[in-house]
Write a structure and sequence with these properties.
alpha/beta; eight-stranded mixed sheet; single chain; about 240 residues; globular
């Protein structure tokens, strides 16, 4: 059943949405949200992961700016607020908050101790940064905007990593995508898939650029990747 848990840090506590599978023991996946906070899209993503046999948590990464952000991607006012939060967001500090969530997830009752990350846009970038700076068991990044600005850290990623890129992404130019692919080419722990004709956030539930076929393909790849590397018995 979906619920919330509290994650403790030296600076205070923040909430994380959690969805659990029916099975008694499962690996955990920490879902990292877009610029819109822990909204309906992220909760649905967690619920889908739980249905696949994972304990899924989505931490409130904006808690230091404004706790409880839950924005609607279809309204201009919420888009404007999301952009302001995105600009004010401290990525370096957030890595520590994500690491605290990973530790909490690994210690949860009913989890195997294995923890993966799965992030979208801002969360995709944070997945990349956390994989480079902290210990995790697997990482999945959907269209991580501005990842190309941090490619000097790619050499520090040792966990298995899967990346999804939309070929027509308006926030990740083709030159940036080429740079990402070139930097990560030949690394045995990294897989990258591109989705022709797709724009940014092609897997966002009900989003303007949602592509059902591409989303199903990417999500299926992600779930199998997490099963393989977290040794889940999910089906």
């Amino acid at each position: 059943m979906p619920s919330q848990i509290s994650i403790q840090t030296d600076d205070g506590a923040f909430d994380a949405y959690i969805a659990r599978p029916d099975q008694p023991m499962a690996p955990a996946v920490v879902v990292l949200h877009e610029a819109f906070g822990v909204n309906a899209d992220m909760r649905q993503t967690c619920n889908e992961l739980a249905a696949q046999g994972f304990v899924a948590l989505c931490p409130d990464l904006y808690w230091r700016l404004e706790p409880g952000v839950d924005l609607n991607v279809t309204t201009d006012a919420d888009w404007q607020k999301a952009q302001k939060l995105y600009a004010a967001f401290d990525r370096d500090t957030a890595v520590h908050d994500i690491a605290a969530t990973v530790r909490a997830a690994s210690a949860l009752e009913g989890t195997t101790g294995k923890v993966g990350l799965l992030g979208f846009c801002l969360g995709g970038l944070m997945t990349f940064l956390t994989a480079a700076r902290e210990r995790i068991d697997a990482a999945v990044a959907y269209h991580g905007a501005e990842t190309d600005k941090y490619l000097d850290e790619a050499c520090r990623i040792s966990a298995p990593m899967l990346m999804h890129l939309a070929e027509e992404d308006e926030f990740i130019p083709k030159a940036a995508q080429a740079q990402i692919k070139a930097t990560l080419a030949g690394r045995p722990n990294v897989e990258i898939y591109s989705y022709p004709g797709c724009a940014h956030a092609f897997a966002r539930h009900g989003g303007l650029h949602y592509d059902a076929d591409a989303a199903a393909l990417a999500n299926g790849r992600s779930w199998q990747f997490l099963r393989d590397h977290l040794r889940s018995s999910a089906v």
